[in-house]
Structures are given as structure tokens and as C-alpha cells.
Amino acid sequence: MTRTPALALNDTLNLVPFVSVDHMMKLVHAIGLERFLTELADYIEEDFRRWELFDKTPRVASHSAEGVIELMPTSDGAAYGFKYVNGHPKNSREGRQTVTAFGVLADVATGYPLMLSEMTMLTALRTAAVSAVAAKHLAPKGARVMAIIGNGAQCEFQALAFKAVCGIDTVRLHDIDPAATAKSARNLAGSGLRVVRCSTPQAAIEGAQIITTCTADKQYATILTDNMVGAGVHINAIGGDCPGKTELHRDILLRSDIFVEYPPQTRIEGEIQQLDPRHPVAELWQVIAGKVAGRKGAAQITLFDSVGFATEDFSALRYVRDQLAATGHYADLDLLADPDDPRDLYGMLMRAA
């Protein structure tokens, strides 16, 4: 793989490829969901290996009592990408998504957009793919059983990404809302996974080598207590993703080797906001690049404290754009003014009368 080339998919400078929600769904089905997740994971892992090339900054967040709106920018020097994303847990009560997003990939050399894409669906896919990439390097060897605490919009994506990338064959599901668990079990029927519905978090964790927490409430919460977590497991904590929102008891963190995406962001938003700012953590890119050891022993508890980072969205946009020419699942959006004389934008306006 190489960096996304700074080339248009057409010869008309005013047109920018636009991937709608409908296009994204058709693209996933054309490729196949598990293949899509596996290939997306490869792109994410490749970009983690070249982590040092990227511009990195914590996301720009605007917080309110209702939720958060964020911008997540980055660049590898050849292409620039950003994502607009919100997080509003109360939205589900009104029949709305708690997370919605869109993103742009642009050419650094010209500043011209290369693609505009929906990212509500794509964020769900990339979050699951990132989790699976981390588990590939941190989970116990031969892990086959996964517990998922929180069976909302992310649940099925997580299960299928871990199946495709890590070889999981059993998922144990729990949610405080039994209807959410029933929904996930129904959606995963026929996936090749053995699905077990569990009435308590303790029951879900029983026999699991991997534990994923992905709840939505915007508050300090204790989804896992210290006595629930035994030696040797890998915890994939993805629900705590903003200041004041956590899922794990602090004592679990103190027993774990913690791996994060970008420490300046995770210390504000992740589970480790509960710890001293100097508490040692390792960066996932260092593990993937072979600079830091991941899992070192059978009794070790590894914790991926994931809050999502801009490079992962960049990888997802890069992957999608690389599929467009072959699949055609996009529309040309008349987004950029393209006058005959670049200095005569006014003349272009007047001639349109």
C-alpha cells in the first residue's frame, strides 16, 4: 500500500467525489462486511506503523450539557483529512443516532478536496477495526471468547471485526436494556459466531479472554468492578471517550498495562483521566511498530483505553477513496468554483445570471 494519490477521479475541477450513506452501504456490501473490516484494519495498522509522519493534535471539542461536537484533523504530508463528529447520548430517546459524522480527504499540494464522505457508518466500522487491530497485538494468544458489555450501535461491528481479524468464535452479550441484547443477538444470527445472551455483566465475562465495554451514558460509571476482572484478560474499553465519562473502576487500571492512541488526548477523555497524569502508559503505534512490548505473559491484564484518534479516520477515508474507482459507489458533487480564469470569480458569477 502507498499513500492516497493526489489525483481526481474525474477531469473536472469543480466536482468532488461524494460518498453518501447509501453509497457507503452499497460499498460495504459490494466488498463484503468482513473483508471490508479486514482491509480497513490493514490500512489502520499501516498508518500506525508510519505514525511519526502524521500531524497530531487532540481533537477540537465543543462541550455542552447535551453532548459534544468535535473536529478531528490530521495530515501525512501528502493528504489531509478531518472528521466532524458529535456525541449526544440522549439522542437515542428521540430516535436519533448518538453519534453522527462526516469527513473530508484533501490534497496537501493543492488544497483541493479529494473526497467528501459520510462517516456515521464509517466511524462504526473504523472503531471496530481499530479495536481488532489492538487486540491482534495485545489479546491472549488463541483467544476465542469475547464479552461485549453494552449492546448498542457499535456491538455487532465489534463482534464481526474481532471474528474477521482475531478469530473470535463466541460472543457473550449483556446490556442493561434486554431489547438491545436481543437486537444484537438477532443481527448476529447466521454470522458464524456463537452468541450467548447474559443477564449480568458477571455472567457475560465468564470464560471470556477479551472484554469490550461500549456503553453510551455520559457519566462516571463503573461497568466493570475490580473483582470482576481476572488475570490474563484483554480489556477493550471504548465507551469512555470524553471528560467525565468512564466505564472501569480505577483499581482495574492500576492492575493493568495500559495502551492508548495519543496520550495528550486520552489523559483528558479516556479511562486514565482517573489516574495521576504521570501514570505510565504505552502508545499503540509503538507496539505495532515493534518498539514496545505488548502482551508479555499469560497473567498480564492488557487494557486498550481507546477514545478514537484522527489518524484512524484518515485511514478509513483513505481506504474508502481507494475503492471508489473500481466500485463507482459515489456521486460527483459540484462543490468548487472553477472559473475559466482563476482570477475572475466575479465574472463567473455574473455570467450565471
From TrEMBL:
SUPFAM superfamilies: NAD(P)-binding Rossmann-fold domains
InterPro entries, alphabetized: NAD(P)-bd_dom_sf (IPR036291), ODC_Mu_crystall (IPR003462), ODC_N (IPR023401)
Organism expressing this protein natively: Rhabdonatronobacter sediminivivens
Name of the protein in question: Ornithine cyclodeaminase
PANTHER family: KETIMINE REDUCTASE MU-CRYSTALLIN (PTHR13812:SF19)
Pfam families: OCD_Mu_crystall (PF02423)
